[in-house]
Records
---
Amino acid sequence: MAEKQLKYRWQHTWPDVKHDFKCLADGHSIGRVMRHDTGPMRMWTWFMSIDHLDRPGEARNGQAMDKIEACRQLEAAYDEVKAATS
């Protein structure tokens, strides 16, 4: 993964799954990005989960055409929620 372009640390969710990544920020896993290979378009879906910010139930998700854009969207959503809790 092109970590230079991204703010937070990314790694494979499972070592044997090629298109599934998790994002680590502030000592917590904050979400996942995964590619869906069904249909003619290979969309990347992202899911954010941030129970550590004391906002139970605060979750967001979205889709992008490529992995880096999906990662950026997840990072931006996290930054937005984090700023609102500060």
---
Amino acid sequence: MSAPRPFLHDDFLLQTEPARELFHHYARNEPIFDYHCHLSPEEIAADRRFPDLFDIWLRGDHYKWRAMRSNGISERYCTGDATPKEKFLKWAETVPATLRNPLYHWSHLELQRYFGIETLLSPKTAEEIWERANAKLQEPSFSAHGILEKFRVAVVCTTDDPVDSLEHHVAIARSGLKTKVYPTFRPDKALTVDQPAGFNAWCDKLAAVANVEVSSLAALETALAKRHAFFHALGARVSDHGLERCFATFAPVAEIAAIFDKVRTGAAATPEEREKFATHLMVFFGHLDAKAGWTKQLHLGALRNNNTRLLRTLGPDTGFDSVGDFPQGVALARYLDRLDTDNLLPKVVLYNLNPADNYMFATMVGNFQDGTWPGKIQFGSGWWFLDQKEAMEWQLNALSNLGLLSRFVGMLTDSRSFLSYPRHEYFRRTLCNLLGRDIEQGLLPRDLPLVGEMVKRICFNNAKEYFGLQVGNV
């Protein structure tokens, strides 16, 4: 009897011969175009080296923290004062409990692809894996630059506030790194007029970096436009907005200006006033993007910071967010329609977090395709809680049934971790398995070059052409 195949073997997720052909001959070796992530530009600029497996793998990873808390692990071992090794050992204790959670796949893919470790992580194997991985991390190829080159990452788009100096992007551009690293314009704080202390502090920072006294709505717009142009000069061609839902309550400019003046005195905008102010600025941002030839990303549907006690203790982005059930369709349609009516609708990628909205989002993009660019409005990849096999298949099926899968710009990491690049492989295996099954069932022709060319385009070339960014020679 032959030995059983190892877990995550070479044909992992590839359940048919056509799927295996598509992945190994068309998808596997394509470079990575990571057009949305949260990697630290400072760490890339410094070509950071990581002292241990905790630092590169667990630090800042709220996916893992959520699993550890669910497994009864104390907060001390997630975000607290436990040592790096103690935190890793608690993660190793949790991993066997993550069976059927995508973390089980991701964690072992990362151990294999980065460290060559095929041993399953558990309390019994934790010490061995800790030592082996830490030894690997001492090798030159495990610096930030080495990792990007190892995984043939042609483009990285980070996520950056308009007030950021972008000094690290300047340093990266001068470093000789093969991967092209670009900033992304993320002006979410400009909408927070219901939180005057934070909003006014942010406006003051904006005034300083833009050299504009932000004392009026017009001055705010001037400062934001200057920063948008500064990002553009450093290669940016993508913006991003993280919203519960779109805003579409249009009001006269004089009313918006009065709201701004009120908040600058320290008074909070009412919910109705915030709605109007945010609508106005989102239209303004849409116009900026369209005039500059940028792509706008709209991440819609997260219900954030649900645990008040731990938000106060740990801050945001620590694992207490969930899928929201906000009504999306009407406001999204009105917002896109306003930009289209103004003849200033940029390319747009829409990401939803509630799978109940898949068909609405997939049909919405078809309303605003105008023949100027293939797939101008995109139904974006599975995001956050939906970036696992099942939900990626839901997104791919909705897009296929209601739009053109062949024009899809593919996967991204949306990650803060340099160990997340196997997520592209995970997506590619899922895509090829879906298409291979269709071929096996006679739903697609058994023409591997035809289907394979579409796979290659989804993996890399569609994004390369769509975003219009120079790619690295990887």
---
Amino acid sequence: MSNEATAGKAAVLRKVGGPFAIEPIAVAAPRDDEVLVRIVGVGVCHTDIACRDGFPIPMPIVLGHEGSGVIEAIGNKVKRLQVGDHVVLAFNSCGACRACAHDHPAACSQFLAFNFGGVRISDGSTPLSQDGQPVHGVFFGQSSFASYAIAREINTVVVPASLPLELLGPLGCGIMTGAGAAINSLNVQPGQSVAIFGGGTVGLSALLGARAVGAGKVFVVEPSAKRRALAQELGASQTFDPRNAHDLVADIKAASDGGTDHAIDTTALPTVVGQAINSVMPGGVVALLGIPAPDAAIPATLLDLLVKNVTLQPVVEGDANPQSFIPRLLALYQEKKFPFDRLITKYPFTQINEAIHAAERSEVVKPVLLF
């Protein structure tokens, strides 16, 4: 394996608010437990936008954490992966803490440092540089807004070469998060009802996950008419426009015989979380998936939760182990039970800013950038 850096291009973020600038980048050779991946497609996730808009990260940095591609080189201690493998890149984790040891890497004790620190936590280095100057990288263990990315063996998932590789990247975060909330976090059972607040990638992936495991009535609350229509095409029992509902909670309860078994909030807006809490029946569970403002508070007292007998369950990355859950989702996709490709709109990598703006305007659900 050569120790020479690989020349590529990356979307570099230099200040809060953007824009992303396509610039040349040098990507160092992989270290012992790392792999070099030629990216063929990368999804744009709400977390990328949140970091652009001020979630604390070091700059300049290359974001992107829904990458898919082909392994070009491997480190000396990589055992499970080979050059030429088709892979999806997921979030990073330590692999050694109690949560990781119990097959729950989404609860890794060093999750923030591994995924948002912008450097390898072992020595503070980054594999990315320009003219000899370091550029922060390893965002979610990949920084895949680039033609080449360095990932670790632990967050690299092999996928069948027969599948459309350029579309698979969002399985590493947004789609995994939504589907995992329904399948893993809430463990939705056949016939159970679910109210989903927000019809973006995560919400619609939760709908697909709930449908894949045989949920009963599934409701989607979403202001965008286009996204409501898509939700119905994907199997929603009923959709609601929160702007036109006189009493949204009453409408959901009327449609679900007194309340749903579960609710999923993807908005992180306290008012909406309150509606989710009030929509479930006693004993119900509300999954909290969105990234809240720093001062956002739960709109309920402890007595409210006790009297209503509602459980609040924060969810990170769908409580999934990517090494087992991504193959499970792909198996459902191949069985035509999980048509996640219906959420995707393709863009050339050079149109990254246009793709992000389209998502912010709800014109598309999941932009995927192609190289």
---
Amino acid sequence: MTDDAVSSGRPWAAFHALWAASASSNLADGVLRTAAPLFAVAVTRDPVLVAGLTVAQYLPWLVLTLWSGVITDRYDRRTLLILGNALRAGAVLAFSAAVLLQGGTIFLLYGAVFLIGAGETVVDNASLTVLPRVVDRSLLNRANGRIVATQSVIDELVGPPLGAALFTLAAVAAFATGSALFGVAAIAAAFLPSMAPQAAADAAAAPVGFRTQLVDGLRFFWTVRVLREAAFVSANINLWGTATGAVLVLLLTDQYGLDPLGYGIVLAAAAVGGIAGGLLADRVIRLVGPGTVMLLVCAIEAVDFLVLGAASLPAVAVAALGAGAFINTSNQVVVSSLRQAAVPDHILGRVTSAYRLIVLGAVPVGAAVGGFIAAGFGTAAVFSVAAAGMAAGAVVAAIRLPNRVVRLAMQSGGE
């Protein structure tokens, strides 16, 4: 355990509090993952407007994430987790009230998911910088694997069918449940010890200005080649994954003929792959190497997208989505552990935000691309174009991110 965790006197309690907060917020995400697009398609079948939901949710990663990174390195990370989850709870509660009063619209939903995304920029950055403080660096792959597996179980296996069932009962029930779960996450985060950022080794040389700290984080990120190139490979994965994901609800309800409950069940069944990926990530990474995992996620997703766009059987959708979830989860463990192992704590929040600006900034772009392609050429065409984009990413990963380079960065210890 790290010095901070040991000094708290309750190292495992700290990890479990973080785990519980993550689990509750991800259950909220899972419920809303189904309820929000189902609400969207209930009020419009326009692919651009449906895809706009994803644009609104991830737009904060383009405009706020760098500032969230500086905040993470300046303030108590426990407090940030509490406030970020409270913001998300309030946003969903307000939309729930609008739905109850029959005033919910697609544009009001955009506003709610934008605020959820804004809170997420703070919560995710803070969470990723807390973990290295409560587990040894040698255990990061395992700890990240457990958290990501739990996220997959709750966010993708439990949450979607629960959200679909609640939405079928009443739309307001699904959104009110999401709000309550974000509130529980805020309460769980309150049980963490104080997580004030560690100072730089040379305190006198540490930047003190907000803007100066932001630039310092960007500079560190850009000078570490493996972080920079892993970010662009991951951005390509997110670009095409979101292009397809933004219109997946249309593909599964139209081409596959699924009703709302069936849509949630397919997402949940496919999530089994993500659960397995999280639990086995440490073994997979040791077996094939971290660089190979980045290559495989691109190659496997290219095949999955071709299959999804051509098929119409729900079982095929489950298999393709499950395979993608498995390797994607393993890749999440690789990139999270890479950042946590290679970046010093005092700058980790800013470097993480710079990384995620590129990686998650690709999400609203991908959603818009998917919506416009679907509107012009049909939903299935999105998956064919995305397959080509993923194949190109596999080539780049093979050339620029071999196992040797990634392993060396992970062993640097932030030095």
